[in-house]
Design a protein that fits this description.
Helix content: under 10%
Strand content: over 45%
Radius of gyration: 19 Å
Number of helices: 2
Oligomer: single chain
Number of domains: 1
Distance between the termini: 38 Å
């Protein structure tokens, strides 16, 4: 299957009422709870990430590429990733792929920043609206209708996240009404798109909480339209995250005593 342009995580939403531009961080109490929860769980890293990319024709898959990666703490606390399985249209091509992409440590710029690296799934390629460091660039407008996500009653917030010199992210965040736990970021778009061959990109990310209250990224689905010369194709990328482990803050992650989430 021909490779698709790199996907970074959202079709512009219709803003039916004035949006309050955030010179200061949003003060909505439920949103502030969500930001606090995200900050408290920023050190959890998915141990297993499975990425399945499909080229769609009339809504049906015509070509698939499946990429399995495991992560673990390195000797200096860095995140080390390794490719463990690659399938191309069902054929196992792991050996060939691993020769090209050996295990590698996390970039220095990502060390100590919790889940802000591209592989963690929470950032959406830099579009994480719950990141405490970007709250002065987030604007909110409450959604008119509630929604049930995974059996939990949620309040919605249409958001804009402006990045200095970078893309503008828009989407709808759904927070559990009682706790403020973020459960979904729906239909997130970015403007401009990261690749000139991309004509549209919409991403939805789901989160979950464990029995001990740990908040983790669960899955992420991105729908794109790609145009190359006179050809146009639709694609769907589904990423699932599991087997999370906790990075040790300021210490050697190999010696961390953090228990796995339950």
């Amino acid at each position: 299957m021909k490779s698709l342009p790199a996907i970074a995580p959202v079709s512009a939403l219709l803003w039916l009422a004035p949006v309050v531009l955030a010179a200061d961080p949003p003060q909505d109490p439920l949103w502030r709870k969500a930001v606090t929860i995200a900050a408290a769980n920023s050190d959890w890293v998915p141990g297993l990430t499975i990425t399945r990319s499909e080229v769609l024709f009339r809504g049906k898959p015509e070509g698939t590429h499946e990429f399995w990666q495991r992560s673990k703490p390195g000797p200096k606390g860095e995140v080390v990733t390794e490719t463990v399985k690659v399938l191309e249209d069902g054929k196992d091509v792991t050996k060939e792929e691993k020769l090209e992409t050996p295990a590698k440590p996390e970039k220095k710029a990502d060390k100590g920043k919790g889940k802000k690296s591209a592989g963690d799934g929470k950032s959406g390629g830099g579009g994480n609206p719950f990141d405490p460091d970007v709250q002065d660039r987030v604007s909110l407008k409450p959604a008119h209708q509630p929604k049930v996500v995974e059996g939990r009653d949620c309040a919605g917030y249409q958001f804009e996240l402006k990045n200095a010199g970078g893309p503008l992210f828009r989407g709808t965040a759904w927070l559990e009404k009682q706790t403020g736990v973020p459960l979904e970021v729906e239909n997130m778009t970015m403007d401009p798109l990261p690749d000139k061959r991309l004509k549209s990109l919409v991403m939805t990310t789901r989160y979950d909480t464990t029995t001990n209250g740990t908040w983790l990224v669960k899955s992420n689905v991105t729908l794109t339209t790609v145009s190359v010369l006179l050809l146009k194709a639709n694609a769907r990328t589904t990423i699932t995250f599991s087997e999370h482990w906790k990075k040790a803050a300021g210490t050697n992650a190999m010696g961390s005593s953090a228990a796995p989430p339950q």
